[in-house]
Amino acid sequence: MKHFLKETDFARSDLPALFALARELKRTRGAANAPKPLAGQTWAMIFSKSSTRTRVSFEVGIHELGGNPLFLNRNDIQLGRGETIADTAKVLSRFVHGLVVRTFDHSEVQQLAEIGSIPVINALTDLLHPCQIFADLFTLAERWGGDGDLVSSLRGRKIAFVGDRGCNVANSWILGANLFGMKISLAGPPGFDAAPEFNDLLAREGFAGGYEFTTDPYAAVKDADVVYTDVWVSMGKEEETAERIKVMSPFAVTPQLFSAAKPDAFFMHCLPAHVGQEVTQEIVDHPRSIIFDEAENRLHMQKAILATLAAAR
Ligand code: CP
Ligand code: NVA
User: Is 109:79 a contact under the CB 8 Å cutoff?
Assistant: First the structure.
């Protein structure tokens, strides 16, 4: 059983085919003969947090692949009243063909994968957001690789992640950069490090030390091909809002900071954005801002992931 809980659930050798499939699914979207690898299948989507892009792109993507998406708000099912993850995994495995899960604690997606008998896709946990980073990497590869080799076009490029450098998106970028042979430099205030669980994961993957960290955002963006940021207050961290805004404000992506990256650098943000906090309106609207391409590519990349996992069942 193949799952997608973290970037490294795909081996390096799997990546060219996965990215080529995303490009093909994007090209043939809506065609009468578009493939339907999920025909006859239902995929349940258990969400414990809000979502616009992830929910809509998965619901549309499962439908376009011929399957039936079944959206389950955690609080509407017995999981929200204390039924165990283990029993939920066993029961849903009797009904549906795969799970897409957005939750807080990463161990929940791991348990669902271990105990259930159907593929599980991580649609964001407090630790990682791998669907986002694969869509982001595909977005960059389209720009740099065009009709040629997508995956190799990423190799050696530098990404600068500025802001909440310990969040799920930053962690996933570290894994993604190491998997794809990119350099990554992160800038943020001290004291907002990744959870120890993430450092253990990096060590297990052989990626310990596979990133630079600085408290100087200008040092991070120097020679960068991509400047990336995310909200300063991730879902579940709302109690820390005032403190986070105070200490992270020197890390806002402004025209001045963005101009310190390479002249042809792209700006990226997973969205939703808090304009006036981590990014200014000028940068959101900048000609080299590709934030809505990354949002669109969630659909195409996730369809490729769904099709790949369904084929491996
Ligand atoms: N980027 C992202 O995952 O957005 P949503 O929270 O809207 O799904
Ligand atoms: N780091 C953000 C990402 C939202 C897509 C959060 O977890 O809220």
Answer: no
Determine the CATH number of domain 139-289. Answer: 3.40.50.1370
We find that the CATH architecture of domain 7-128+295-311 is 3-Layer(aba) Sandwich (3.40)
pLDDT for 111: 98
Q: Which of 23, 74, 102, 165 is catalytic?
A: 102
For the Cβ of 44 lying below 6 angstroms from any atom of ligand 2, the answer is no
pLDDT number for residue 150: 96
What interhelical angle do 15-27 and 291-311 show, nearest 10?
A: 110
155 is catalytic: no
- Find out whether the beta carbon of 168 lies less than 6 Å from any atom of ligand 2: yes
Give residue 231's pLDDT.
98
Task: For ligand 2, pick from 105, 168, 239 the residue to mutate: most ligand atoms within 8 Å of CB.
Answer: 168
Strands (E), the chain: 42-47, 68-73, 98-102, 120-122, 158-162, 183-187, 212-214, 226-229, 266-269
What are residue 160's DSSP bridge partners?
Answer: 185, 227
Within the chain, which residues score under 50 in pLDDT? none
Q: Which pLDDT does position 313 carry in this prediction?
A: 80
- Global pTM? 0.98
Q: In the chain, where does the domain assigned CATH 3.40.50.1370 lie?
A: 7-128+295-311, 139-289
The predicted pLDDT at position 40 comes to 98
| 164 neighbors 244 (Cβ within 8 angstroms) | yes
